[in-house]
Amino acid sequence: MTQPALTVASLIRDEQLRLACSTWLPQGRYELMELGLRPDPAAELERCWEQFDAVLLEPGVLSIEAFQRLRAQGRILPAVVLGQLSGPMEFFQDEVHLPPDQMEQLSYSLDAAISRCLRRRSSAGAWEDLHDGESSSEVHDPSNWRLPLRLRERLGYLGVFYKRDSSRFLRNLPAAERKVLLRSLHRTYRDLLISYFRDPVAANKALESFVNTAFFSDLPITKTVEIHVDMIDDFWKKLQLEGHKQDFLKDYRLALLDVMAHLCEMYRRSLPPETSTSDGLVARVVTASQVQS
Amino acid sequence: MTQPALTVASLIRDEQLRLACSTWLPQGRYELMELGLRPDPAAELERCWEQFDAVLLEPGVLSIEAFQRLRAQGRILPAVVLGQLSGPMEFFQDEVHLPPDQMEQLSYSLDAAISRCLRRRSSAGAWEDLHDGESSSEVHDPSNWRLPLRLRERLGYLGVFYKRDSSRFLRNLPAAERKVLLRSLHRTYRDLLISYFRDPVAANKALESFVNTAFFSDLPITKTVEIHVDMIDDFWKKLQLEGHKQDFLKDYRLALLDVMAHLCEMYRRSLPPETSTSDGLVARVVTASQVQS
Known about the structure:
The structure is a homodimer. Chain A has 10 helices and 7 strands. Chain A is an alpha/beta fold. Chain A folds into 2 domains: 6-155, Response regulator (Rossmann fold, 3-Layer(aba) Sandwich); 169-290, Methyltransferase, Methionine Synthase (B12-binding Domains), Chain A, domain 1 (Orthogonal Bundle), CATH 1.10.1240.30. In chain A, α4 (106-132) packs across α7 and α6 (175-195) runs antiparallel to α7.
């Protein structure tokens, strides 16, 4: 039984970016629909809205008015924004950002966007709807509700819990791909360190990318520490050669702490809660209130 | 259908400790069998070995010879050692240590000991035995193999994966118990900081206690950071009042990093692995090799 892939609307004009998207999204799991070069991408997106499970977005391809229109209709999809890491601009809620030089992480970012979207829905009281099929009064467009069901059916998402695809775990990748992913993670971590004390918005986006990819690629925690130590060592040597002080580099441990705390919280929330029944047996019970905590 | 509790052999002589054990082990889940005051606790332990699912141990109650005898028979149980946090002594494999002033965390430590024991068994190639009931040639005493099955039946352990009892999550405890547990966690964290740079063995044990309790009580990650910050603030003020330098306190971020890394790895390993089947659906498949990674 072959299941169709999830359908991803690509709102991207830049040729390099379009090429990178088709390179780094694993076929079979995602099907790309390119709308970026159409005369009116926004109209196309709205016309075929019900086909899409997620969106890839290059800033500037949709107008502010188009976003306002979508928002007014309650139309929100998991989104990955591919562009420069600056400015606090938000297109969709809970979108995930990925800089163009780290496209190797695209599929992990998309998984993160989908998981976030599911979590947000659930915490907005959508959990029951997911299970009994009734539509909620908070939702303007019932087509929105197809998404969680579809994700659950096709990718095995357990409601709002992250479900990772182990074929894309770092240790299960072919050696060459593993190397590429690690290099990309190094770039992301470098972005984090460089912006950490001087550009909080950029730092947050880099942190987010790093944590998403670490989680969905099941990166061992020691590897994260190793990336930090390697990079700080490099900075240290460079500063020493140039005759600068290096002691302030210790403060970058805060960046690593930040990464660990976020990653840890992500793992913590991805464990389905268990509750004891009265006879002492443990049963699997998932309620919306537990999910939010 | 009422299930009997897990049976815990208590090899403790100290009266305060015995009292604390019966206070802090939740009834219904664990049944305590006190052997510590018997004339020959080791003989009693061996005689009734098959009844026990875990052991509480005060150093000195069993002789070195008794341990050697148990080890020679391949007899190993999940164990919590209740005593002073010093020296690298190991009684059972993978035992968990808890200092006497932190007995509030006893049930969490016991869960940690059980989980570890299950993991070790699994990584020793025991996974298949757990499922098809065949005994392995590596095992000297088949009575050992009852344990994982019993744990699975009674507490719902998913093979080797940590299964937490949400009734003991911090947020689900009555307010008074919550306060007691948090105070105890503060004491453990304090032990960690005090020993961090001067007594690695003691630091490791405190770190272990903290991480175990944080995991099994589902402590929010922000709370861990808060405990660290509170404690460092207190030290800072104290040193300032006494006219000492305080800058070295920043180095204690390494202790927090250590806690985060361990906790994160524990959460990471507690997620059951998933693998993709050829048609793109995600199936739940657990293999011994994945468990070890």
